[in-house]
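Can anyone check this?
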Amino acid sequence: MTFICGEYNSQKETFHYINAGHSSPICIRKDGKIELRSETQRVLGVLHTEYKHLTIPIYSGDKLILFTDGVTETFNDNEEIFGDENFLNLLKNNHHLDPQDLSDLVLKTIQEFRGKKDPSDDISFICIEVNKNYDSNQ
């Protein structure tokens, strides 16, 4: 079983997390640059593992993407895989969208790619944008 758990610290502008075999987070910087994280650790339940805490600096205007491998490992009727390259291109070409619109587009694109084929895995996609100007009293 894979697992990812994290916490955003607005004071330190960091996302601290533990990744146990899950798809690594992606950071889309305010300028549209995509940063891939490659740190992963053993899945849960395989040997005794001390999981190390990982950190990503996240600044105002940056987006943090968390997703399951069902996003990139979606197959269509021709047994073609959606893949990392299509996913990263989709993020790169649409980095300017707000989190809800980007999430909707990713899920719509996956569904269109898949066509009539049933999903073979769960598909989860979370996009979080840091907004330093957010007023929690609104």
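Reply from J.R.: I decoded it. The chain is about 20% helix and 25% strand.
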